[in-house]
Automatic annotation (TrEMBL):
Protein name listed in UniProt: F-box domain-containing protein
Top-level lineage group: Eukaryota
Length: 497
């Protein structure tokens, strides 16, 4: 059978191949392969990074000073980071050259702005602000280190992207959160049609006081995924009637080395509305990540779980905190509860994990849970970069645990789970690493085993049933995971209004 050569492949296929390569390897192809040179060049020009205002003029020359305009046509994603000019006076050249490039970038679909507030407060920052506001065809927009002028820019944006990230700087004085008036923020046009919204370090206030208020007339009806870092979740989920996935991340930091942020005291909606918080939004997946055991967030976790009625709850084992798990168990047993899939992350301290098995797991014995997945990582805050994990994930056991105590817990877990929770039908146990960045790390499990729980009633029904664990292949296990997270499975659950 003849083997296809590179010359025989069309540009679409070559583009897919080039897309798998690193930027340096792609650059090498531009100069070494006639067959893919044009495709590789187009790929490199599709996603660029520029430091502004220092490189504003140089970037203008690169993108626009050619007759056919080929380079500017290729640009689809642009990342702008802040770097002032070193060799020339401050703000030399300003942002006008960069603004001209943005005005001509008709195919630009993704924009990432780092240190946005710094850019806007520069002498010619208004020029950049106007240029960004005029970009009407963006599909993804990420604005980092935002401040008051950045919020004003958001009010003028003409784009309606599907993916939006707005992140304040937690180290900005005088407060660890950027305070924005609730109705003003809820009414931002840039959020109106976004399906995925990421918000970080924002505090929504009403007349200067964080508190509850009704959702605006025009909610974020298109939003399906909401990712919040160090924010009060109930302040926002009421804006998202069609939300399916809520991810809450809480990363530790301190104010002047003393006060810890965040904690329940900073979730004003939750603390003011106490136990009876109810919203119309019901999510399929609630994912909670707490980066430090010293953070007091029990009220936030309980109130959000009660309010959103998740089908899937991804949560850490919280060092065997029996008081927290007792409250969660009561929620899981409630007639309104939809929790059927519990996804628990074990990490750092094996003795506390043993405490979870001894004291917390029995609390779940009468909960109608169908599937439990336990994930084991050696250290929560040892986060692996995505490209590094990609290079090892296909090894036989890339998530091998170092300590024998962890291995013993992992190996004993399936039988213990099946015997403790009679309703269980599926069990999964996996080892791996935290992957991504520190604030938004996720579990990357390269080693996983799945079991179907088979039960056979004993002759004397009062004695219960025998339990048999039937191992299924990982591919079948992934199908179970996907189904239980799906809208199809959620529709099968009955609950009371």
């Amino acid at each position: 059978m003849a083997v296809a050569s590179l010359q025989s492949l069309n540009d679409d296929v070559l583009g897919m191949i080039v897309g798998l390569l690193s930027q340096p390897d792609t650059a090498n192809l531009v100069f070494t392969s006639r067959a893919v040179s044009s495709v590789a060049r187009r790929h490199i020009l599709s996603s660029l990074v520029v430091s502004a205002p220092a490189q504003s003029l140089e970037f203008h020359r690169l993108m626009l000073e050619e007759d056919d305009g080929y380079r500017i046509q290729c640009l689809q994603r642009l990342t702008i980071i802040f770097q002032d000019s070193v060799d020339e006076p401050t703000d030399a050249g300003g942002y006008s050259p960069l603004a001209t490039v943005l005005a001509r970038a008709r195919n630009l679909r993704e924009l990432v702005m780092g240190s946005l507030e710094k850019h806007l407060t520069m002498q010619s920052g208004k020029v950049l602000s106007d240029a960004i506001a005029s970009l009407s065809d963006l599909c993804e927009l990420e604005l980092r280190d935002i401040g008051k002028q950045s919020v004003e820019l958001c009010e003028r944006l003409t784009c309606e992207p599907k993916v939006v990230c707005l992140a304040a700087d937690p180290w900005t004085e005088p407060a660890p959160y950027l305070e924005v008036e609730y109705s003003r923020f809820a009414g931002l046009p840039v959020l109106r049609n976004a399906s995925t919204i990421t918000l970080q370090h924002l505090s929504l206030t009403r007349n200067g006081t964080p508190e509850s208020q009704p959702a605006p007339v025009t909610p974020w009806s298109s939003t399906r995924t909401l990712r919040l870092e160090n924010m009060d979740p109930l302040a926002l989920i009421e804006l998202c009637p069609n939300l399916t996935t809520l991810r809450m991340g809480f990363m530790w930091f301190a104010d002047n080395g003393s006060t810890l942020y965040p904690d329940d005291a900073h979730s004003k909606y939750i603390t003011s509305l106490a136990r009876d918080v109810r919203v119309d939004t019901r999510v399929r997946v609630l994912d909670v990540f707490v980066g430090n055991e010293e953070l007091a967030l029990d009220k936030t976790i309980i109130a959000t779980t009660r309010a959103t009625l998740p089908v899937v709850l991804s949560i850490q084992f919280h060092y065997g905190d029996a008081a927290l798990w007792a409250q969660l168990a009561e929620l899981f047993k409630h007639t309104d509860a939809r929790l059927r899939y519990l996804d628990v992350l074990m990490h750092d301290e094996s003795e506390y994990a043993q405490t979870w098995f001894d004291e917390c797991l029995p609390l779940l014995s009468s909960c109608p849970i169908l599937c439990v997945r336990l994930k084991f990582v050696q250290c929560l805050l040892e986060v692996m970069a995505e490209d590094e994990f990609a290079s090892i994930k296909d090894r036989p056991e890339p998530g091998e645990l170092i300590d024998s105590e962890w291995e013993e817990l992992r190996d004993a877990a399936p039988k213990l789970l099946a015997e403790t929770i009679p309703s269980l039908r599926y069990i999964a146990v996996s080892s791996g690493y935290m992957v991504g960045d520190l604030a938004w790390s996720t579990f990357g499990g390269g080693w996983a085993r799945w079991w179907n729980v088979a039960r056979e009633a004993l002759e004397n029904e009062t004695e219960g049933s025998t339990v048999e664990l039937v191992e299924i292949d990982e591919g079948e296990g992934r199908k179970v995971d996907e189904y239980m997270r799906s809208a199809w499975f959620a529709k099968t659950l009955q609950f009371h209004d």
